Amino acid sequence: MTHQSAPLRIPSLLPTPDIFSCRRILVIQPHYDDADIAAGGTLAALVDAGAEIRYCTMMDDLVGVIDESLNDEAAAASLLRDQRAAAKIIGIQELTHLNYPDAGNWSRFDVRPDLFREIRDFRPDAIFAADPWLRVEAHRDHWEAGSIAAEAAILSGIPKLASSDAAIDALWRAAKPNDARAVAFFYTDEPTTFSPIDATWERKAAAVSEYHAQFTDDELPQLVKTLDAKAQLVARVGVEAGLLPAGTKRAEPLKVIDPRALHGAR
Question: Rounded to two decimals, what is the model's pTM?
Answer without folding.
Answer: 0.95
